[in-house]
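Exam revision sheet. Question 4 asks you to relate a sequence to its structure. Input first:
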Amino acid sequence: MSEEKIIWADCKRCARKTQHEEMYIHHISADPDEYPDAETWQVIRCRGCLNIAFRYQYDDYCDVHETDDGNYEHTTTVSLFPKTIRNHKRLDCSYYIPDVIRNVYQQTLSAYGEEAYILASVGLRATIEATCNHLKISGNSLEKRIDQLFKAGHVSNGDKRRLHAIRFLGNDAAHEILEPNESELRVALEIVEHLLNSVFILEKKAKRLETVIETYDEFLKALSSSVKQLKLGETMSVANILGRKRRLVTQSLTSFEAKLIDDISAGNIAYLKLEKIEKIDGRDIQLYTIGEVSKPQVNEEDEFSFL
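Answer key, structure tokens:
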């Protein structure tokens, strides 16, 4: 029985170097009378995640160099397919990223994996541009659009400064044809992935969680969600209707309630009816009667979940 051959190689799925087992091998050695080299093709499988990859090895027996311990060894060149970025894991749930932006991001990763660092730098810059386009960020230059990303609340001030660094990197690559080193590109990739993760992926995932209510529209969605859990005909205050969701209101409930009363009076809200005002603990409290909530047509992108 032949001994199992173990090969250490970068695993795209594990995002690190792991042990692989050899599934298939094809080896060609040069004719002894010709240039002494050899080529090896292998199908390998990660022993951790079982991901399959293709490995190519070229041995040049004429290109010999001395090692640190005084021995001599020939040059060996190894390539893996599909190409990987060493110790890099692609964003999870990238399907939450809009198609155009995701396409630019994936092409950038492909360029990076092929060590086309100039193209990868331009791709990272283009990813920021595509994100600004999707968010409808105005400005006649990327510099101004990055500043607007910050002013619109999409990124922090620190993120803004880091995005400007990528703008410089992309400009140098596109206009000056300056190639960044791998460590610079690695940091730039992490910054762009942080942008995509915070603006698109985490924003989508966060809708599954309770979050603060900052606008009147969010207040109405929380209110209608609470009304669905109550009995028809019950009479109570808006704070009691909200129940535990009351803690999510970060602004004055009074200002939201004033708009609510106006909407009910104008007939814009049918699931609540204005009742009498009672004095409770020395305060005038408006009471409401619970009605039935209709099911409006809600666009998935506009949906705001209060669980």
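Marking note for examiners. The longest strand covers residues 52-66.
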